[in-house]
């Protein structure tokens, strides 16, 4: 990876319509969207700006997608970095990257900073895990001090995601830091149906395709798996030179995706 690229700044075109299910999470995040759309309205009334939001949930359930959707709905720039990128480089670089990232987000406010895999940098300090990684602790300290250093008028929301909230340093969760948690749960069959609908929007489906049936027969699959399922089905259909994707293609794709997820499980053991 190139060390020059510390983080990316993007204009998100993702909206809540692209995030299927997760209605409760969207509702909770609507407040953040409204703040970012019109921060002055909040400030005028002396309301304290929201600051940090932690999205908590298993891998592939749409946390990153959700953060992009908040930026898209609000129409503000989205600065993203994965926490493991913070610390992979040279000693001392992690902390300066954090400083740089926050400075840039403030310059472009209102804006959103999104830190993926917060646990990579945010594990409890002094636990000896990672062999007392000074670089990581310095980075974490810098992150905490940046969050404390916001002025009331700074119109920057810091979002982050983790699937291990239990290992986070409690200092991260204090008021003024990531004091709001939004749960992004694994989809039930209804939500899986919605996710399949979103991802088949541009796929020509044969009449025999029953997305509800597919949703019911894919327990345990997350959004990323379902996106993969649709893509595999389209690939199989394309290889047959079919005009449309039919149920048989989905059935074969399902076997493949399930094999893939099982392999991942075995490998992670
Ligand atoms: P990780 O913890 O692995 O980073 P994540 O929770 O951030 O995972 P995303 O990266 O947002 O998951 O999801 C991967 C892809 O899966 C998304 O880009 C999207 O295409 C699809 N996806 C996941 N969840 C949903 C959802 N609820 N609705 C629509 N698509 C989804």
From TrEMBL:
Residues 49-188 form the AAA+ ATPase domain. It comes from the Bacteria. ATP binds at residues 57-64. It is found in: Cell membrane; Membrane. Acts as a processive, ATP-dependent zinc metallopeptidase for both cytoplasmic and membrane proteins. Plays a role in the quality control of integral membrane proteins. Homohexamer. Belongs to the AAA ATPase family. In the C-terminal section; belongs to the peptidase M41 family. This is ATP-dependent zinc metalloprotease FtsH. The gene is ftsH.
